[in-house]
Amino acid sequence: MSRIIRTTVLAVLGVLWLLPVYLLLVNAAKAPETFTSKESWLPTDFSLFANIAEAVRLSGLAESAASTLLYAVVSPAIAVVVGAAAGFAIVALRLRHGFAWFVAIFGGTVFPLQMILLPLFDAYSRVGLFDSRLGMVVVYTAISIPFSAFVMRNFFTGIAHSVFEAAVLDGATAWRIFARVYLPMASSALVAVFILQATFIWNDFLLGLVLSQSDTVRPIVTSLAGMQSTYGGAQMSTVLAGGLLVSLPTVVLFLFTQKFFARGLALGQY
Amino acid sequence: MTSDQTAPRRPGNRRPRDPFQRSATGFVAPGVILVAVLLYLPLLWTAFLSLTEYNGLGDPEWVGFANYVEMLDDPDFLGSVLNTLLWVAGTLLVPVGIGLGVALLTWNLKGGTWLRLPFLIPYALSGIGVGVIWSFILSGDGALDQALAAFGAGDTPRWLVDAPLNTVVMILATAWQGVGVNALLFTIGLQSIPKEPLEAARVDGANGLRLFRSILWPMLRPLTAVVVGLSIVASLKTFDIVQGMTKGGPGRASETLALTMYKETFVNSEYGLGSAIAVFLTAVTLAASVLYLRQQLSSKHGV
């Protein structure tokens, strides 16, 4: 197909793809008084920031955002290191039955969350982790580990074992080799996994829905869903502004770190 | 590493001496423990609960396969299975198909990176975020209806109310989000195709569809298996977008398996039945996972 036809087809499709984004921006910017569900295509006024402020006030989004930021930073940070440690044990330290352990860890990611929701809810209620930040960090960490172990093992497989042997001859301990040699070599893979997992956690809805309740603990996407069902009828422009606010961090992060994303995806074959 | 003869100090022990086995165990332990306690233990507990009658109070009461019988007898469950199948088929057809199309169109095209960008913007949105935008667009007299009216279409269907149309439009909303990442993956695949066979085929006059059929498609096969497998698995788990847009309604008309499980468990407190549905969903997902796990776990793919 000729260059011009290809470009035209892509441009038309691209514009089509951007229409929902346009509609979101235009309508999230309408003051509740000027907003009408019957006139969606033309902008009327610019009250975006007032709407965002109102959305934050209505649903406690500020507290949610702070907690979600904590989850999306701490959990993947722990998970990449734990996953890298597992990969290091299997590949560099040649853990006995390493492949079996690897499959055991990786297997944690293949079944749907539905299979663990109820026992988690039940157990969290009993031990006082329900509706707590610690409980959320722990569960997000656990579900992030299989993927990071998978990627890090694959990555370490590409490092010659002689690197490890040389460090041993220099008298380094296993911990030192891990922290000073392997982790630094893997930094780009670590960042790639971290970004993928942080995005996934920021966007989580289901675990937040089941394991939390209060505005302070509840992840932001779960709060947005609550806001949509409570105010979706009367204050649509406010809800749209809330949706924009909640979505912006991951969209911006993704667009600026596309290379890392692509790398993480390629490393995970995903 | 292979022979024990040099380590006579520990007779009877077949294992070779390896100073790092201890630390290896220490390094793998945190991951194994976290995954075992937070993922595998709950998993086994759900499997057990599916064989009991339980509502959160008192103790689970053993009922054998009664929950599974009840599940299979329930017309709402069958509706949910059908909707889920529709999701699987639709997700393969639309986001994977268009994603491949976009990747092929932008391949070796000047400015291709920029032309791909619009498709990538929705990728990092949450399912609920997508739901908020599309519920607004698809509402009665909403943006889509206004646009259609401008083109003279008066009587439009109730997008999110009429079943199974509501499932179809939700699949399209998901496609709006998913095309970008599939395009990105197929692009990575296309870029890794060696240049020589392509040049040879071009010299031989292969072009367009022929080039695609005889060179590109076979070379993309391994990647396609992964993308298809992941799409199937992801669509089987569909929850967020449906919960955000129709809550499975009207009635239970647009429920997926993941949603039915959630409702039976956390709305109706039918823990046993909800667990049975979870086990069913897991079995189906695992079967589908084999498709791409074989590819992923084969040793050739250490990157």
From TrEMBL, chain A:
Residue spans crossing the bilayer: 69-92, 99-121, 133-152, 181-202, 236-256
ABC transmembrane type-1 domain mapped to chain residues: 65-257
Record localization: Cell membrane
Highest taxon listed in the record's lineage: Bacteria
UniProt keywords, alphabetically: Cell membrane, Membrane, Transmembrane, Transmembrane helix, Transport
Alphabetical list of InterPro entries matching this protein: MetI-like (IPR000515), MetI-like_sf (IPR035906)
Chief location of this protein within or outside the cell: membrane
Bilayer topology: Multi-pass membrane protein
Family: Belongs to the binding-protein-dependent transport system permease family.
Protein name per the record: Carbohydrate ABC transporter permease
The organism of origin for this protein: Glycomyces niveus
Lineage, broadest ranks: Bacteria, Bacillati, Actinomycetota, Actinomycetes, Glycomycetales
Automatic annotation (TrEMBL), chain B:
Matching Pfam families: BPD_transp_1
Domain ABC transmembrane type-1 positions: 81-292
Membrane-protein topology: Multi-pass membrane protein
TM region(s), chain numbering: 24-45, 85-107, 119-137, 168-190, 211-236, 271-293
Compartmental location: Cell membrane
Keywords from the UniProt entry: Cell membrane, Membrane, Transmembrane, Transmembrane helix, Transport
Region (Disordered): 1-22
Family statement drawn from the similarity comment of this UniProt entry: Belongs to the binding-protein-dependent transport system permease family.
Protein's UniProt name: Sugar ABC transporter permease
